[in-house]
Amino acid sequence: MFAGPPLDLLLSPWPLALLGLAIGSFLNVVVHRLPLMLERQWWSDVAAQLADADSFKRVFASTAPERLALASGGLEKAITELTPLSLARPASRCPSCGHRIRWFENIPLLSWLVLRGRCSACKTAISVRYPLVELGTALLFGALAWRLGPQPATLLWCGVGAALLALALIDWDTTVLPDALTLPLIWAGLLAAALGWLPGLPLLQSLWGAVAGYLSLFLVYWFFKLATGKEGMGFGDFKLLAALGAWLGWQAILPIVLMASVLGAVVGLVMKAGGSLRQGRFVPFGPFLAGGGAVVMLAGLETVLGWMGWA
User: Fold this and answer.
1) Rg of the chain over CA atoms, in angstroms?
2) Which of 121, 127, 148, 248 is most deeply buried (CB count within 10 A of its CB)?
3) 239 exposed, middle or buried (CB, 10 Å; 0-12, 13-18, 19+)?
């Protein structure tokens, strides 16, 4: 039903690489704004909790002091005075001078090169990460199209790759893996397997992949916490690995974890030696899990297992 020359052309590497440039531009917005949107929601929850006198009485067995209600009112007022924020609004602006980014200044990769990496109004430098994310997404989409060929499932895998890139960058910046991305990724993988959209991955393997992904890190988390009294990773890591298991199957879990652990340890040691890892801070695990998943996606599970001598 979907076969034919037009589809072959649209889903070939170059058109999908161009699509990747546009998606990469949007991912820059997601990576910047989604954590801020979550933080706003958390502060709103704090305000609601401070105003809950009944909850205070249940927990502390005493009447809530008046200063909590005043603090709640102040927080609510501050939150309502903020400019509304979503992934679509407000329009992008220069953080230094407030210059509104015009459409021709927002063409993926090209605009950054034409502007020489600076705001057209105040000449403040624009981070090189923006064009790198766009270029990286384009290369990822093109590579997936080259490996998988012109089939509708290729678009699914491009979506997975975009989600992994966004999650990796958000976790690196904030040490948070948002449920708004990880949970839909889990359910999408299970649904795609159930509908037969993932050749070679039946629903049962996808389901056990999600279970194995979550439980493996969940058990490691608790063993580490019982042994040291510290938390070695966040619950977002469990959900991310569950999502990778849902898309790649349970056989991919161990290779992904091993690749992520080795690369994460190496990066952590290099950062510590270079003084960029401050005392008490840690390297988030999510980017390396996402990277391991991307390697399996691009190389294929059988190839990765062969590298490890398990094929």
Assistant:
1) 22
2) 248
3) buried
The two tokens of residue 128 are 């090189």
Q: Which two tokens stand for residue 111?
A: 């605009």
* 110-160 residue pLDDT tens: 999 999 999 999 999 999 999 999 999 999 999 999 999 999 899 999 999
pLDDT by residue (tens digit) across 49-104? 999 999 999 999 999 998 998 889 999 999 999 999 999 999 999 888 989 999 89
Are 256 and 292 within 8 A, CB to CB? yes
Locate all alpha helices (DSSP H) within 51-128, ordered by sequence. Answer: 53-60, 66-80, 110-114
| C-alpha to C-alpha distance for 32 and 22, rounded to whole angstroms | 16
CB 87 within 8 A of CB 77: no
pTM, to two decimals: 0.93
Query: CA-CA distances (angstroms) from residue 74 to 55, 67, 70, 79?
Result: 19, 10, 6, 9
Q: Which two tokens stand for residue 151?
A: 């089939």
